[in-house]
Amino acid sequence: MSQTSDSNAIYLTQIHQLKNLQKVDDEIHEIEKSLEKGPKELEKVEARFAQVQEIRNKIQDKLDHMQKQKQQLTRESEEEYERQKKSKDKLMATGNEREYNAVTREIDNIEKSAQGRERELTAIQEELNTQNAMLDETQKEYVDLQVEVESLRSKIEKNQAEADRSLKKLRKRRTECTQDISRPILLRYEFIRERLEHPVIVALKDPICPSCHISVPPQTYNDLLRGGQIMSCPNCQRLIVSYEAYIEDDEEAKQQAAIEKELERQKEQASAKTSHRKTSSGRSAALDKDYNKEDRDEVEFGHTSDDEMDDDMRMVNHIIETDLDNLSRSAGISDLTDMPETTGLTDLGGDSESSDKDDMRPVNHID
Fold it and tell me: Is the pTM higher than 0.70?
């Protein structure tokens, strides 16, 4: 008995040690996950920032090109204005009609060209206004993203520094936790931790692993309930223990488990009572149904008319006569009056008057 108690105490101690180690690994796992979120978020913001920057550069390039076009058209328009002015001065100095007509045609051509350039300048200016508005909007988003990127980088650097300090302390605690765990169990723990997602040790309330959600064989589950050694899930290879053994060192969890167990017991009792009431009700209804059926049969029989009863009796007599006739034919009897001697049934086929006469014959007394 003492040996069994000592073995169980060692088993519970091993579970306690593994739980402490896993708590430290949980904290390390959470810190490492939080550190992964920062760079991923920064990567998304930087990608958006690069996209906005590219759009901004394209708009700027387009604006630069359109500004050059505008400047070129403006110079050409100014040059045409000067030619037009000279042509008008020349027109005033013409001395004959031929020169006058030539100068007039020249002025008309200059005016037509100027009108075309004026329309081009107007279209370019409208597009410049549109592109400038887009640039202003993009520039605002560009600046906001630039600030966000710088802020995230600063935050990540700060979090990284704090995480490094916390991880240093946790790794020291982890080393202390591993010193008391037996080497075979620790090697199994480390092997699983390197290859599978957290957690490593799990508690089973029923024959289903809470990590891989696959049923554990009944024999394995029975061995698990008996305790005595740390077992592995046949499917995911995680370390498994019974829930009762897992919470043995946690009074609060034990109290909560007791409350849940009591609630489940009460629920089962209530369900059993409900089922019993339904069964009793069903039987009572069935009996009532049979009784009602008998009553209906009696009522139906009681309502049978006299004519119907006479018809039934005539049918029965007909059947009896038919059977007797068939029987007499098979026995070679021509008349039913001979049947009593043949069959030995003296009560059938006799004449009532003959019987009465026989009964009235005198009896000879012998003195």
Answer: no
